[in-house]
Amino acid sequence: MNKKDVSIIITLYKTPVKRLKSLNQYRKYPIMIFDQEPEDNSKEKISKILNLKFDYYYSKKNIGNSKSTNFLLKKVKTKYCLFTQADITIDKTSLNNLILMIKKNKDVIFAGPVFKKKTKIRKKNNSQNYEINNHLNASCMLCDVKKVKKIGFFDEDFFLYWNDEDLMKRVNKTNFKMIKVLNSFANHESSQSSINITSINVIRSMHFKCGELIFDYKYNKLRFIKIFRQLITNFIFLFINSLLFSKQRLVLNYANLLGITIFLKFYLGKKLKLL
């Protein structure tokens, strides 16, 4: 198997450097890293952890998952590319099985492994060793780069979440296939960023809500009345949960309001362009 056929790409945002030890499993493949809001000497710190060569790119600000991933995709020179994360491990045999399966099936655009912790693994009587799916776990999947270019990269309107849902929805409108490779396995370890847990929850929930609304706007003809209703509902529950001292729910309401506010800026920008 020609190792030069596959590149590994990974985007980082305040990821503890020690988490990147998992990338040593890909030492025989070209690796590209995009680091957002890196610490001083981040590249040197990563080099000490990784005993391999890698291409390093960075942005002083957080530009989002879609933009950073697209940046790397445009740099890829190999036929295939593995999207992965710092907290994901996939053994050599499993990766080889992904590569073999996508090479064997010319109409496949994405091939993903079975996640051990998220999926109950059952032996299936499937001589093909794969299942056709309309959705895969985008945190680790192998893609045919030429086919992805043909349908378009990640929609950069999505900052963090729902970009994979959007991409796969577009794939399902084509003749390309997405497959789960049944003899390929990955582990997704729980991990934390270097910022505190409350900040993480706010950032994640905020961008999830915003992405959800953008997805609805793009595909489901989202009406302004629905946005207004969500805005009022979260304001009311923000007040109620502040009285009840329910910190977890208070954080969620606050994050949802931020997400709705970001979406409104996006929504109004789109409307103004039509004038």
Number of domains: 2
Q: How do the helices and strands follow one another from N- to C-terminus?
A: EEHEHEEHEEEHHEHHH
CATH hierarchy class name of the largest domain: Alpha Beta
Detail the poorly predicted runs.
Answer: 118-123
CA-based shape: globular
What amount of the residues lies in strands?
15-25%
Give a quick account of the main beta sheet: strands, pairing sense, barrel closure. 9 strands, mixed
Overall helicity: 40-55%
Structural class: alpha/beta
Number of helices: 8
Q: What is the straight-line distance between the termini?
A: 54 Å
Number of strands: 9
What does the oligomeric state look like here? single chain
What does this structure look like?
There is one protein chain. This protein is an alpha/beta fold and 275 residues long. The chain has helices at residues 42-49, 65-75, 92-104, 145-151, 163-171, 197-219, 224-243, 247-274, and strands at 6-13, 31-36, 55-59, 80-83, 88-90, 108-115, 130-133, 141-144, 177-188. It folds into two domains: 3-188, Alpha-Beta Complex (Spore Coat Polysaccharide Biosynthesis Protein SpsA, Chain A); 197-274. It contains eight helices and nine strands. Strands 1, 2, 3, 4, 5, 6, 7, 8 and 9 form a nine-stranded mixed β-sheet that branches. Residues 118-123 have low confidence and may be disordered.
